[in-house]
Structure formats: C-alpha cells, structure tokens
Amino acid sequence: xxxxxxxxxxxxxxxxxxxxxxxxxxxxxxxxxxxxxxxxxxxxxxxxxxxxxxxxxxxxxxxxxxxxxxxxxxxxxxxxxxxxxxxxxxxxxxxxxxxxxxxxxxxxxxxxxxxxxxxxxxxxxxxxxxxxxxxxxxxxxxxxxxxxxxxxxxxxxxxxxxxxxxxxxxxxxxxxxxxxxxxxxxxxxxxxxxxxxxxxxxxxxxxxxxxxxxxxxxxxxxxxxxxxxxxxxxxxxxxxxxxxxxxxxxxxxxxxxxxxxxxxxxxxxxxxxxxxxxxxxxxxxxxxxxxxxxxxxxxxxxxxxxxxxxxx
Length: 312
Hints:
Strands 1-2 form a two-stranded antiparallel sheet. Helix 8 (196-229) packs antiparallel against helix 9 (234-266) and helix 9 runs antiparallel to helix 10. It has one domain (28-311): Rhopdopsin 7-helix transmembrane proteins (Up-down Bundle), CATH 1.20.1070. The chain is an all-alpha fold. The N and C termini lie far apart (60 Å). Helix content is 76%, strand content 2%. The protein is built from eleven helices and two strands; from the N terminus they run αβααβαααααααα. It has helices spanning 3-11, 26-53, 60-89, 96-129, 134-137, 140-158, 160-166, 196-229, 234-266, 273-298, 300-311, and strands spanning 13-15, 93-95.
C-alpha cells in the first residue's frame, strides 16, 4: 500500500473512547455492560412476545408499549457492537461512513422514542379525560398512522445531519468522547470549517422534536391532572393517576439524561471527559434497560403474563 493511500485511510477514521482513565480494567467493566445489554434485549423482546401472543393485550396502550420496546431494542443494538468492541478488543477505529450511519440510527431512534412517549401521553389523556370515546378515537388505523408519522418525522429531521457532516473536513483531534457516534461530538473536530449551519440545524432538530414533544406531554398531564382533580371519589382519583405513573417515570428517565447531555455540550464547559461519558451511557443505555422493568412492575396484565410464561 502506498504512503498516500495509507495516509488517506488514516484520515478517514475516528477514534472511539471507552471510559477515560480506566482502560486497564475495560474487560471487567464490560461485565455490567453485557448484563445491561442482555437484560435490555431480553426484557424488550419478552414484552413484544407477550403483547403479540396475548389477544387481550391488543389494545392501544399495549400497542404503543410494543412500539416503545421495538425502539429500545434498536437503540441497544445500535450502540452494542462498538461499545463491547472497545471493552473487549480495544477496537477504537471507525470509518467516517460507519460513524455517520451509527449516528443516524441513534438519533433517529431517539426521536422516534420521543414521539412514542408523546403518543402514549395522548393515549392516557384520552383514556382519562374522554373514556367514552377512547375506542373510537384510538382506532387501529389511527395508531398505525401515528407510528408511521413518528418514523417519517424522525427520518426527515435526522437524514440531513450525516449529509451535512460529510461536507466538512475534520482537522482537529478525531477522538470521540463515547464508544459510539453522536452528532454533538463532531462539532469540536470541525473548527477548520464553517459549522454555523450544523449548529443551527442541530438546534432546530432539538426544538422540533424532543422539546416540542416534552411540552405537549407536559400539557397533556396538566389536562389529565385537572380532570383527575374533578373526580370526587378519592379512590377513583388514585386509580386514574396510577395508570399513568409508569409512563411518567419513563418520560423522566428518557428526557432527564438527554436534556442534561444536551446542556453539557451546548452551554457547560466541563474539563473532565468522564462526566460526558457517564451521561452518554445513562442517556442511551438506561432507558432501554429500565422501560420493560417499570412496565412489568406497574402493569398488572403484563406482570401476570410474565409470571405465567416462566411458571409454565
């Protein structure tokens, strides 16, 4: 191979990072990560299996839950190869194209999950505030359209990101802070290019997706709370709120680390790379891990079906 070709290949790669300062024990650190990925994949697969095989669970609430499980499976599978590759084999190199593809799927699935959480909030709003019209509003065709719209919105917003990134030269340090590729990471390596379009478009994507979804979820729960407080029966009030607790927990679990990571990249200058690394792992690994656990604990039909699966 000529020196020119070798140099070209060398410049066409990024370098992923594990946990800075703990490289000597990456093999040991891989054990909890393996358990997290395994639990996430098995938990979400089990939720999908239960909902698919039990006709009594073919209701809007459980269909949205299956959409969430599919999205969480995608998030786990999109980060698992590079993360475990670093911890097991110290495989840090990743080509530009492979990195952009991984970034596309990570951000696409994140936007879809945000849209699914909004759909689930709408489901709870209709069930509590307008129960008599629940079945007529949330029909199978309407749910399918909501899912398709979530996918199309995600693709339309995220597809320009890798296209914009391919236009730039990366003249600075090509070491990423995470074991996977995120859009925010590329900004520090593009100082030799005009990145204003990337910054503005990235901010627009955040506003048009997660921020908008969160505000609509917040609005739906304000209206739900207003409706619940009008219930004269204390027992009825608690029963209505109990149906939404698991969804509220998952919303907080999804948006809190995602918001924290965005604020760190945009507004907070933190010298320690460990903070970004930990926040990145919490942002992408914890929700897919905890979502099936929370729903199996809080939803009696899911819990009962899981018990029957393992007993029988």
